[in-house]
Predict the structure.
Amino acid sequence: MLKLGVNIDHVATLREARYRGQAGGEPDPVKAALIAEGAGALGITAHLREDRRHLQDADLFGLRKAVTTRLNLEMALVPEILEIALRVRPDVVCLVPESRAEITTEGGLDVAGQLDRVRFYREKLNAAGIEVSLFVDPEPAQIAASHEVGAQFIELHTGAYAHQYHRKQARNDEIQRLSAAARQAHGLGLLVNAGHGLNTENLPLIHLVPHLIELNIGHHLVSRSIEIGLAGAVREMLAAMAGYPG
Ligand code: PXP
């Protein structure tokens, strides 16, 4: 079964638009996480950014207490955030780029270009019992590098696919690239997640990509929740994900 991880950053984005710098405020990402779990999400994803543009430290500690499925913390290669991650102890950390220098062509983490640095973070997190995922483009060199640094998971960046979705040839090419990357990663013993830009319209073709364990989806679910509520949006997405052949 393909698992759904719900990215709740945009809930905090909305709150910060009105309540920046104030305690409390609405909507509350912890409440959103509990609604998502109640509707069948098997993971909650949250990105603590160095600039704190959406999620705040207190949200992360609140999520750690409340989340009963799996808490996936997205973070950049930043010492301050590593220190927080080691205190919060999420179940898994997904290392993502924040600065331009760490980003490859499509937008994933440039693992191949900074092997030692990524390995250092991977080792520190694993030593604290936290699994490590790397958010990478579907490029052979990045998959090989993810294996080389000892990550447990990769998260394939589906942004290029989502972006090309309305161009038939280009989107099929992107599905081929994602599929090849998933096969390569699986062959190396890496566990494979995917995410970015997915919605119920572009989700069906993702069923063609093999070996996927979890999809991390945020923007669409939070947007759709305005129309049908977050629980309804999560259930609708789970229906679109059902029947994944593996
Ligand atoms: N995965 C990662 C690593 C991300 O950074 C994001 C965006 O925050 C997502 C998944 C979810 O992307 P979206 O909000 O477009 O669904």
Remarks:
- The chain has a mean pLDDT of 97.
